[in-house]
Amino acid sequence: MNTPATVRRNTPQRYRMEAGKCASCGKVYFPPRVVCACGSRKFKAYSLPSEGKVVAHTVIRTAPRGFGDEAPYCMGIVELKDGTRILCQIADCEPERLKVGLPVALEFRKIQEAGESGVIAYGYKAVPER
């Protein structure tokens, strides 16, 4: 049975930093798309690098439902070494330490626990390089 949870768990980019690279023009999309801006529908799986730098950031002080016990937490746009940009949580970083240009690495971590069912969602978070 395909429930939203099983579809999400079976999505490759959820558990691997896997993007789609257009076979026609070479543009990389994360998450993968069905159609490229150039009109092509042909994509190849592309493994993203796990290192990059913060190019924009914010601090979430009033968290949405399901994340309330984590506030405040940092979110940011990370530009990976290949130029691909992703939006993700920035963990293990005090808000006052967060800055543009901060070198980060992506780590597979717990994102949230879904209510009473206790289903745990995992994904990638950026952490400052040590």
Task: Give a verbal description of the structure.
With 130 residues, this protein is mainly beta. It has one domain (4-128). The chain contains two helices and eight strands. The chain has helices spanning 4-9, 12-15; strands at residues 18-22, 28-29, 43-47, 51-60, 73-80, 85-90, 103-114, 119-128. The strands form two sheets. It has a five-stranded antiparallel sheet with strand order 6-5-4-7-8, with no helix packed on it. It has a three-stranded antiparallel sheet with strand order 2-1-3. Strand 7 and strand 8 form a beta hairpin. It is globular, with a radius of gyration of 16 Å. The chain starts with a helix and ends with a strand.
Sheet/helix structural class: mainly beta
Number of strands: 8
Strand content: 35-45%
Shape: globular
Strand and helix map with partners:
Blueprint: H1 4-9, H2 12-15, E1 18-22, E2 28-29, E3 43-47, E4 51-60, E5 73-80, E6 85-90, E7 103-114, E8 119-128
Antiparallel strand pairs: 1-2, 1-3, 4-5, 4-7, 5-6, 7-8
Give a quick set of tags describing it.
8% helix; five-stranded antiparallel beta sheet
Quick summary:
The chain is mostly beta strands and 130 residues long. Helix content is 8%, strand content 45%.
